[in-house]
Amino acid sequence: MHDEGYAAATSRQIAARAGVKQALVYYYFPTMDDLFLEVLKAGADTALAQMRTALTADDPIRALWTISSDPRRTVLNTEFMALANHRKAIGSELKSYAERVRDIETAAVTMVMRANGVDLNAYPPVAIAMLIAQIARSLGNEATVGVTEGHEELRALVERHLALLSAPTPSVRG
Amino acid sequence: MHDEGYAAATSRQIAARAGVKQALVYYYFPTMDDLFLEVLKAGADTALAQMRTALTADDPIRALWTISSDPRRTVLNTEFMALANHRKAIGSELKSYAERVRDIETAAVTMVMRANGVDLNAYPPVAIAMLIAQIARSLGNEATVGVTEGHEELRALVERHLALLSAPTPSVRG
DNA sequence: GTCTATATAGGGATAGAC
DNA sequence: GTCTATCCCTATATAGAC
Known about the structure:
Two copies of one chain form a homodimer. By secondary structure, chain A is mainly α.
């Protein structure tokens, strides 16, 4: 899926890469949909675990920013988003995963913003959390197709604002 | 592509929807890759034209925000991003399109920020342009899979900042 | 320009031997 | 658990009639 897209992730290709025969795929997964779902769940669980660990880091928000920036993750995310457009089961799983991710990010952002005395009404943590995660993903997505225009500038801008949230300092303006 | 993903956009399906026979597709497009490329180019040209028109609007940045938010566009964009992962021709076309879009957005943002007396070094227009476009796309992408958590809050936050850029007023903080 | 028909390839999935 | 063999379907693409 990562290298050639979901359409190339066929039972035969997968079996070949695993060094087994095609029929064996259907021994473990009744249908290809089940296989895709398991791949999604496994990846999601790994990502969620990483994110929960990030919550205990010195700089939780930067840790979440780094995780969300991972190009491997952004590429697969795009593939699953495309898959979700026409496979309901993938769609609902992706949705529940996205919501759990957002909850974790929001918790981290809330914690840090509170510690920094930021006005939580003016800057709702859930909005800031989404901002951070989606900007990271966008940079990854664009870099994948070779677009880098404005990346340096945006990265610098984000870094400056992340710095404001890395240590308890007053009067942060978002 | 919009309804069922690029993998379902086969010569047969396309012919059926067009009310013609499958072979006719190959009369107009030598290969499916050529067809995908033409769809991308046509959509890109339309979008670019809309964006250039937006530059002359009363509130150019909000106009660009609206265009980038269009769910039809975000869905197709995701499909093409996924396609680009394994089709070089799509990838390079998507890249050149993304860069032209960014240039237009940057021009609009530069113009408005200058009129508002915003510090262009502290807030590079290209970064703000990317921010606006990608947030809009992210909201569209997530809405497509049914995720809406934090959307209202983020939308309000964006609206507040867009308002700062809609009329020439001093002391904008981004 | 649009069609029918077909070549060739590969897909998902199952049956049944070992 | 892993294999071989196979069914059936659909894909891209081409040939050639009209």
